[in-house]
TrEMBL record, chain A:
Protein's name according to its UniProt entry: Spermidine/putrescine import ATP-binding protein PotA
Biotin carboxylation domain residues: 167-367
Cited InterPro entries: AAA+_ATPase (IPR003593), ABC_SmlMolc_Importer (IPR050093), ABC_transporter-like_ATP-bd (IPR003439), ABC_transporter-like_CS (IPR017871), Biotin_carboxylation_dom (IPR011764), Mo/tungstate-bd_C_term_dom (IPR008995), P-loop_NTPase (IPR027417), PotA-like (IPR005893)
Reactions the enzyme catalyzes: ATP + H2O + polyamine-[polyamine-binding protein]Side 1 = ADP + phosphate + polyamineSide 2 + [polyamine-binding protein]Side 1
Major enzyme class: translocase
């Protein structure tokens, strides 16, 4: 998943701002997307992720700043000559054309012969798993098939960058998971830079080499999925990517080797500098722990690191998993933790006493 | 369910009042008598022959056809511009401007027929078929715009962006994507405008000068009782033609909606 640094830059944003009247939609975007990367723009609706994607395509003019594609300034380069193609949220399949005509639409000005173009269309259809669908009417296709046609239509032009605007949001859960895997494979196969806009954090984690998390027109954190999950830059990012437990903490001492804190319910611990987040933004001192880093210890099990005690306040059974809310002795808020269900192991009842195992190395401190 | 029969009776009475007179047209068009009265006298097609031989009627019909074709084309072109502007662009005073374009739909025709007459005479434009066309374009444009706005609205904006993204210019995008998708709306608009123009009386009467069109000619014929059966025959033909045109228009409107995958929100029929 990690990305080698030698790859050239495909897209660069330099202090990009966008205003709609008084509304400040993009507030100083600085980011670099590498060639061949699967990059995601992730954030809640209204955070500016689609606007940013459309500035790459050329559908939105920027108010100030620079957008470079393959080291070329895109100011005054209209959308129809940019080396990018887009898969739209609604797929935008031309309803009056056949599948073949849709896929071959961008080849209209291509100087190749008719036979060569037909061959290219057939190859593109085969690539997205729609071999033999060429003669069908586009408006009679299912959602998943439209999605594939839209992909083939964009990829046939061999763009430097493929832009995907929430392409999976209209599909049902099963279809979506299948298309996620297919998109990853397709991206590896063609080697084109993919930029995906999504509000689904799971989708972004599954698919991307790197993710930019956006809030209110700004990039809150740009990192690979593992860093984003394990070391979120702020409480807001931590809350948006999965679930995180927070506990207020007091800083006792700090030096170059780390910070010693006393967290409510957890006690004293020393955290290394890479576990300390958000030095600039004052969020109060809080430690964060992901639900799966806390384990209920059953009879006979010993903690690998530390142990704390609490009371079960809520139990949610999910089949393969059980989610517990446990309030530690001396803590104000309950913690959420997730346990894989193992045959023969009981599910605890509400009100039961629980012994939890955890490790300070899994914690982060937000300051 | 205890339904009140009054509403049912009212509905039936209403429909009889609306359509019974039209059913009388074919009855008397084929009735072998100069008098429009029951009992019917027997079957004849003489009135159609008489109508066919009427030279003045022929001229009036040709004038009407010319006016209807020309004004429906102009009104539809203007309707395309207005519908495009109303669905795609934002500009100051948009609501007011679109409202003013739509106003002739509800404004008494008499008002702008009189206003136009006064202005045309004052400016010194001679009254002719051209001035009737002018009036009919004004009258038909709101209808064209209403039909075309619904056609343009059901068009997903990202279709245009997709074509542009795939290398087309705004002009070729219009030709390759927008035009084919709104074509059913355009045909439907042409047919509706044609029907409105063909039926129209007040403007044709006020602005026609010494040129006669079909509606004005028919009204004139009622002064001569002997001519009435032939007018009935003509009326019958017009009813048939109108039904055909409206059916075709509605067919294209519905096909257009089905083609773009939209939801039918009701049209004129």
């Amino acid at each position: 998943m990690t990305f080698s640094a030698e790859k050239p830059n495909m897209i660069e944003f330099r202090d990009v701002h966008k205003y709609y009247g008084d509304y400040h939609a993009l507030r100083g975007i600085n980011a670099t997307i590498k060639a061949g990367e699967f990059f995601s723009l992730l954030g809640p609706s209204g955070c500016g992720k689609t606007t940013l994607l459309r500035t790459i395509a050329g559908f939105e003019d920027i108010s100030s700043g620079v957008v470079l594609i393959d080291s070329k300034d895109m100011a005054n380069v209209p959308a129809n000559v940019r080396p990018t193609n887009m898969v739209f949220q609604s797929y935008a399949i031309f309803p009056h054309l056949t599948v073949e005509e849709n896929v071959g639409f961008g080849l209209r000005k291509d100087p190749r012969s008719k036979d060569e173009k037909a061959k290219a269309v057939a190859e593109a259809l085969e690539m997205v798993g729609l071999k033999g669908y060429g003669k069908r009417a586009a408006h009679a296709l299912s959602g998943g098939q439209r999605q594939r046609v839209a992909l083939a239509r964009a990829l046939i032009l061999k763009p430097k960058v493929l832009l995907l605007d929430e392409p999976l949001s209209a599909l049902d859960k099963k279809m979506r998971e299948q298309m996620q895997v297919e998109l990853i494979k397709l991206q590896r196969q063609v080697g084109i830079t993919f930029i995906l806009v999504t509000h689904d954090q799971e989708e972004a984690l599954v698919m991307s080499d790197r993710i930019a998390v956006m809030f209110e027109g700004q990039i809150a954190q740009l990192a690979d999925p593992e860093t984003l999950y394990r070391r979120p830059a702020s409480r807001k990012v931590a809350d948006f990517i999965g679930t995180m437990n927070f506990a207020p903490a007091a800083v006792l001492s700090e030096d170059a080797s780390g910070v010693e804190v006393d967290a409510q319910g957890f006690g004293r611990m020393t955290l290394s500098p890479d576990q300390v987040m958000g030095g600039a933004t004052s969020e109060g001192n809080t430690i964060g722990l992901r639900p799966e880093t806390l384990t209920i210890l059953f009879d006979g099990q010993n903690a690998t690191d530390r142990e704390v005690f609490g009371t079960v306040e809520e139990v949610v059974y999910y089949g393969d998993m059980t989610y517990y809310d446990v309030r530690l002795d001396g803590a104000a808020e309950p913690l959420r933790l997730s346990m894989r269900n193992v045959p023969g192991r009981p599910v605890l009842d509400i009100g039961a006493k629980a012994r939890l195992g955890w490790s300070p190395s899994a914690a982060v401190l937000f300051r | 369910m205890n339904r009140n029969p009054t509403l049912k009776i009212y509905t039936i009475a209403y429909l009889i009042f609306l359509y019974a007179p039209i059913i009388l047209l074919p009855l008397f068009a084929f009735n072998d008598s100069k008098v429009i009265a029951f009992p019917l006298q027997g079957f004849t097609t003489n009135w159609f022959a008489e109508m066919w031989a009427d030279q003045q009627l022929f001229v009036a019909f040709r004038n009407s056809l010319l006016i209807a074709v020309t004004s429906s084309i102009f009104a539809t072109i203007l309707g395309i511009f207005a519908a495009r502007a109303s669905t795609r662009y934002k500009f100051p005073g948009k609501g007011g401007i679109l409202g003013l374009i739509m106003l002739p739909m509800v404004l008494p025709e008499m008002i702008f027929a009189m206003a136009l007459l006064v202005v045309l005479v004052a400016v010194g434009v001679p009254l002719s078929l051209f001035t009737i066309i002018l009036g009919h374009v004004l009258l038909c444009t709101p209808f064209a715009m209403a039909i075309l706005t619904s056609a343009f609205q059901s068009l997903d904006r990202s279709l245009e962006e997709a074509a542009y993204d795939l290398g087309e210019t705004p002009a070729s995008t219009f030709r390759l994507i927008i035009l084919p998708l709104v074509m059913p709306g355009i045909i439907s608009s042409l047919l509706i405008c044609f029907t409105i123009s063909l039926d129209e009386f007040i403007i044709s009467y006020f602005l026609g000068g010494n040129q006669t069109v079909l509606s004005v000619y028919i009204f004139g014929q009622f002064r001569f009782p002997a001519k009435v059966p032939a007018v009935m025959a003509l009326g019958f033909i017009l009813v048939c033609v109108s039904i055909c045109l409206l059916t075709i228009a509605e067919y294209f409107r519905r096909r257009g909606i089905a083609k773009t995958g939209g939801k039918d929100t009701g049209g004129f029929l």
